[in-house]
Sequence to fold (262 residues):
Amino acid sequence: MAQRYVRVQSKTGQVHYGLLNLDRNVQLLDAPPWLKGQPTEQILDADSYQILAPCAPSKIVAVGKNYAKHAAEMGTETPQEPLLFIKPSTTIIPTESLIQYPSQSQRVDYEGELALVIGERCVDCSPEQSRSKIWGYTIANDVTARDLQIRDGQWTRAKGFDTFCPLGPWIVRELSAGARLQTFLNDKTSPVQSASIQEMTFSPEVLVAYVSQVMTLLPGDVVLTGTPEGVGSLQVGDRVRIEIEGIGSLENSVTARSEDRR
Fold:
């Protein structure tokens, strides 16, 4: 099994990066792994930490309609170049945290995606250079208020609600080019989304290079690579699980958004 890099919070409130062992104990690192963090002798037992999203990016750069069949199901053609948008870092929640369904929307969708974690500062890179800037891979759910996306004509509000980017549960360094992404609702055995990541229109290294021509990507930043066909609506009480071969599964339930979130 590939090494799994996690970010956790101890019972004392300290946040650490570490390596997740098979017994669920975590060997702590002395820095984020993409900043050359090294293993220490400190171990957190399985019952002594809470798992967090595996990184804390300065920004999340996402890509729309990067699978041809998803573009078709949205009634559009495949873009001629990557279609970029940004999700705020405050959208991020870890696995097992709650997606909050906002009162402003009547249609909130799941979108299972492969997420790239950047390891080095990336500016004006070529696709070949970008390959080495991708430090690892994790899973994301690009939760979207679909009715607001259509109504607004741009995507900031629809994609930007708090809790609208479940991320994790950990990062792996390598991933098979043909890994399958699948999304499941309410523990049903048949997936609502199922595709090979090879079906992307623009590959991960092309996406990172393209983004780097627009904005500087910093260590720990996240690039979402788009969702395959099969997007659909979520209801309060639903549970959504996204699996990617070679990584694991990201699971979150849906709750009504509280009016008082202070």
